[in-house]
Amino acid sequence: MADTDEIDKLLVNRLSNRDIVESRYKELFHDLNKPTEDDNQTQDLVDELKQELFKRDSELKKLDDINKVLRHANENSNNEIISLNIENNIMNEKYNKLEVEYNKLIKRWLSKVEKDVQDMNGML
């Protein structure tokens, strides 16, 4: 019977230790399957942040599209500026040639008028 009493004491001691460990375990890991108020708030916050992220991604995509369009427009404007500069250079060259030709014509006309004046003066 002494062995039985020792075994009973040992069993009671182990059972009480098990109960203590189990109660501590329950304190640490309360029922995780039950949503708590904090879990609901956290989930609401996560949902709100997901919506905000979706909005930001949409806005970023829109801005990226706008940026592409503006870059294309900028490239077209730069091409137009280059074309207009080339056209301006060609027109300046034509202007300079015409100015030289005009000056030659004026000199020829003035020398003809001067010759006519001299001829008229010589006749008098």
TrEMBL record:
<dbReference type="GO" id="GO:0061908">
    <property type="term" value="C:phagophore"/>
</dbReference>
<dbReference type="GO" id="GO:0042802">
    <property type="term" value="F:identical protein binding"/>
</dbReference>
<dbReference type="Pfam" id="PF08614">
    <property type="entry name" value="ATG16"/>
</dbReference>
<dbReference type="GO" id="GO:0034045">
    <property type="term" value="C:phagophore assembly site membrane"/>
</dbReference>
<dbReference type="GO" id="GO:0019776">
    <property type="term" value="F:Atg8-family ligase activity"/>
</dbReference>
<dbReference type="GO" id="GO:0034274">
    <property type="term" value="C:Atg12-Atg5-Atg16 complex"/>
</dbReference>
<dbReference type="GO" id="GO:1905037">
    <property type="term" value="P:autophagosome organization"/>
</dbReference>
<comment type="similarity">
    <text>Belongs to the ATG16 family.</text>
</comment>
<feature type="coiled-coil region">
    <location>
        <begin position="74"/>
        <end position="108"/>
    </location>
</feature>
<keyword id="KW-0175">Coiled coil</keyword>
<protein>
    <recommendedName>
        <fullName>Autophagy-related protein 16 domain-containing protein</fullName>
    </recommendedName>
</protein>
<keyword id="KW-0072">Autophagy</keyword>
<dbReference type="GO" id="GO:0000422">
    <property type="term" value="P:autophagy of mitochondrion"/>
</dbReference>
<feature type="domain" description="Autophagy-related protein 16">
    <location>
        <begin position="22"/>
        <end position="121"/>
    </location>
</feature>
<dbReference type="GO" id="GO:0030674">
    <property type="term" value="F:protein-macromolecule adaptor activity"/>
</dbReference>
<dbReference type="InterPro" id="IPR013923">
    <property type="entry name" value="Autophagy-rel_prot_16_dom"/>
</dbReference>
<dbReference type="GO" id="GO:0034727">
    <property type="term" value="P:piecemeal microautophagy of the nucleus"/>
</dbReference>
<dbReference type="GO" id="GO:0120095">
    <property type="term" value="C:vacuole-isolation membrane contact site"/>
</dbReference>
<dbReference type="GO" id="GO:0032258">
    <property type="term" value="P:cytoplasm to vacuole targeting by the Cvt pathway"/>
</dbReference>
